[in-house]
Amino acid sequence: MTPLFKHAVCLLTILFVATTTATKTTAADSTSTKQVINAAKFDSLQAALDALPKEGGVVLLPPGKFEITEPLRLGVGDVSLRGSGTATHIINKNEAGEPALLIAHPECKNAKTDRKFNLWRVHVTDLRITGNEKSGAGIEARQVNEIYLEGITLSENGGDGVFLNYCYEDPRIVDSLFTYNKKNGVNLAGCHDIVVNANHFEENQDALLCTDGYNLCMNGNNLDDHLGHGVIIENTYGSVLSGNMIEECAGTGIILDRDCYGITLSANVIAHNGAGIDLRDAHGCAVSANTFTILKTNALRIGPDSGRITVTGNNFSNSYIGEKSIKRKVDDAAAGGMLIDNAANISITGNVFSGLTEKAVTLKGERKNIVFASNVLVDVESDLE
Description:
mainly beta; disordered N terminus; 25-stranded parallel β-sheet; 41 strands
């Protein structure tokens, strides 16, 4: 057998195997009951959702304004709900506190207790949802594991923008916009291994609330102009907030409360809020490499129920821009420092405190196992030096 003939035989064998495999795959796919549903062919969006088989599928939403007075209900998993960008606009006219979109098993009424009635793998993308002062959340999900929300705009809802209610396994919220919602932009209750990345939050009551969960990874988000606080984390551990811009909150930029532990707050810019970070009930946490600038008061507060805190490599500053001048006007020159409020077991090292209108560190109560070393103080007084 010549080398050329051997080569031809090998090619034919490869083509036969590939063709057989492709045929088998196609045959297997042809037995699937999953469907691609074009909602434009149905009388209503709900009718399109109801057409999904129990195995799931894809629902394509057309452009247009769709007014609803009761929630759209999605009750099966392995579904991708896809709009046409912000051209798909769902307007919630409900005034009884109901969400625009409810994602839940039909028998899941109480998300905390009805854990056997759950869904897996729901993807919502490329649409806009708005509500009114009396409506509920833009999207509420109950016991939906591996939920994935991306590229959505949720505005002016009477409740939260998104409420993930015990969506335990691996929820992801990315590249979305949450604005002017009467409660939280995002409300995470009882969730685990959470990713919240590259979103915009503006002028909600609070930007994000995370309670009774763990492993929140919140990175690269932009938070601005909130009527209340920025990020509130309660009864949660093992989490990281990094690379976020948190600005112009009327309240506090970040709050840790109710038995938080093992959380890192790092490399955030926390600017021009009512206050910066408030460790109300937090232990074993690190506050590092953040920029605290022109906070009205208490850039960092460590309260009496907190301890074992590391504070290192941060910059606490006013709007100094060199040449003995500041950028902000005199009536907007407030720049807060640290308040240690009857807390103990704290290491404060390698920070810069400059041009503050409060003391670099105000110590309330006795000094109890507090290390203050290798810090730089410029144009500021301090209770610790």
